[in-house]
Amino acid sequence: MISKKCKYAIKALLYLADHQEEERSIFSSEIAEQELIPKKFLETILRELRNFQFVQSKRGKTGGYKLLKDPKEINLADLMRAVDGPIAMLPCVSLNYYANCEECDEKICQIKPVFEEVRDQTLKILNSTSIDSMRQ
User: Could you tell me which of 47, 60, 68, 124 has the fewest CB atoms within 10 Å of its CB?
Assistant: First the structure.
């Protein structure tokens, strides 16, 4: 399950993508109001998205946020890892955040193969889904 933080990050990027043709920066308050996201929480999320180089920000009267990357280049796997960390459901099947399960022997584990398949199918979908492809 993704966190609310990740869900709101996706919604914010979708909103910015939908308005990028307007060639203006979008205030966090506008995104928060239109997407029903708590403003303070959204501001924290947008700062993180800026640090991960998904968006750029500008201060002042004409300030706000814009996408730094083309919406076609932002896939859900990269976004989810940036915001939430590992995508895999078990640490022993994670590609980027691998950790050994203390209580089992991976060589004979009957659980691991199933969750490797879940991971692979999930990544296939998330890697091929961009912010642009989610837009209506």
Answer: 60
Give the model's pLDDT for residue 4.
Answer: 98
Cα separation values, 23 from 3, 7, 13, 17, 115, Å: 30, 25, 15, 11, 43
Q: CB 111: neighbour CB atoms within 10 A?
A: 13
Q: What share of the chain is helix, strand, coil (3-state, %, to 5)?
A: 55, 10, 40
For residue 98, give Cα distances in angstroms to 19, 65, 91, 104: 38, 34, 5, 15
**Domains of the chain by range and CATH?**
4-67 (1.10.10.10), 74-134 (no CATH)
The tokens describing 92, both together, are: 């022993």
The answer to whether 74 and 131 are in contact (CB under 8 A) is yes
CA 58 to CA 76: how far, in whole Å?
25
